[in-house]
Amino acid sequence: MEDYREDSVRSYRQIRQNIRSLQGKLRASHDALQKRKLIDELSHLEQERLRDGNLFTGDGADLNEVPEEDFPILGRVWDRYEALISENREQPSDVQGLIVYLRYFDEEFLGFLTPRKLKLDVKYSMVRDTFYNLYNQLERNLSNYQQESSRIGAGDYTKKYEEDILKRLVEMRNALFIEADRFLRRLRQFAEDLIDDLEGKQILCQNGDDFLSYSSIDREVDLRGLSVKEAVERLYELADEAVSFIDVPDFQR
Asked: Which of 99, 116, 110 lies closest to 62 in space, CA to CA?
C-alpha cells in the first residue's frame, strides 16, 4: 500500500512538473500554431492529472516549493497565508504564488493607494486611483479561474466535452497571467516614478516624509510605522518580485 502511494505521488508530481514546463513554453511562445499545439498537450496532461488526483495524491504536492532566495517576499509571507494556500492546494505552485502575492497586496497596499495615505499631484492621483479597479478586475478573473478549476477538479462536467473544457481552462490561465503581469508592471512603474520624485524634486508626492498610522482593526501589518517613502519602496519591491515570479515574456504584454 505504501509503495502504491509513493508511486502515485511520484507520478502525480511528474505530471505537474511537465505541466509547469509546458506552461512556461506557452508563455514564451509567440507562434499561434505552436501555442495551439501546446494548449492541446497541456489539456491532455490535465486529463492525466485529473485521473491521478485521487486520495493518495490530492494532498497539495506543490506546497512549500517556493525558493526563498529568489523570491524573499513570497518566502517571508508564505506561512502568513497557510490557510489560503491550503484552500488552493490543488493549484500549481505558480498559481498559488500569484494568489499569495495578490492577497498580500490587497491587505498591505490597496489601502495605502488612497488620497488619505498617499498624497499626489493631480496626474499621479489619477494614476493611483486606477489601481483599485484594475486590481478588482484581476481578482474577479482569478476567482473565475479558481471556480472553473475547482469544478473540473471535482468532475462536475460532461466527460465527452472534457478536452474542450480543459483547453478553455489552459487558455483562461494563460490570459490570467498576462493580465497579472500587466497590472504588476504598471504598479512597479508607478512606484518607480514616485521613488525617483521623492529622491529628487518631490513634486509628484507631497507627503513622502509622513509616517503611516493604522488602527488596531486595520489589516495592515508590515506598513505600520513606516514613512510614505519607505512604503512606496516596499510597493516597488513587491511588484518587481512578483513580475519576476510569474515570468511573462515581453511580447505577451
From this structure: 99
Place of cell 492525466: 48
Question: Which whole-number Å values give the CA distances from 141 to 129, 138, 172, 230, in the listed order?
Answer: 20, 5, 9, 31
Q: Which residues pair with 211 in a beta bridge?
A: 227
Alpha helices of the chain — where are they, by DSSP H? 2-28, 32-52, 72-77, 82-87, 93-108, 122-153, 162-198, 228-246
Q: What is the mean pLDDT of each run of 10 residues along the chain (253 residues)?
A: 51 72 76 80 72 43 58 94 91 90 98 96 96 97 92 73 79 90 97 97 95 93 96 98 85 46
Full-model pTM: 0.80
Cβ atoms of 167 and 40 within 8 Å: the answer is: yes
Crossing angle of helices 122-153 and 93-108, in 10° steps, is 140
Amino acid residing at 236: Y
Q: CA 169, 173, 178, 179: dihedral to nearest 10 degrees?
A: 90
Could you give the CA distance from residue 127 to residue 125 in angstroms, rounded to a whole number? 5
* Measured CA distances, 57 to 8, 19, 50 (Å): 6, 16, 10
- Nearest-5° Cα angle at 143, 78 to 61: 45
Whether the CB-CB separation of 127 and 188 falls below 8 Å is answered with no
Nine-digit cell string for 6: 509513493
Supply φ then ψ for residue 217, to 5 degrees.
Answer: -95, -5
Cα torsion 25, 150, 164, 17 to 10°: value is: 30
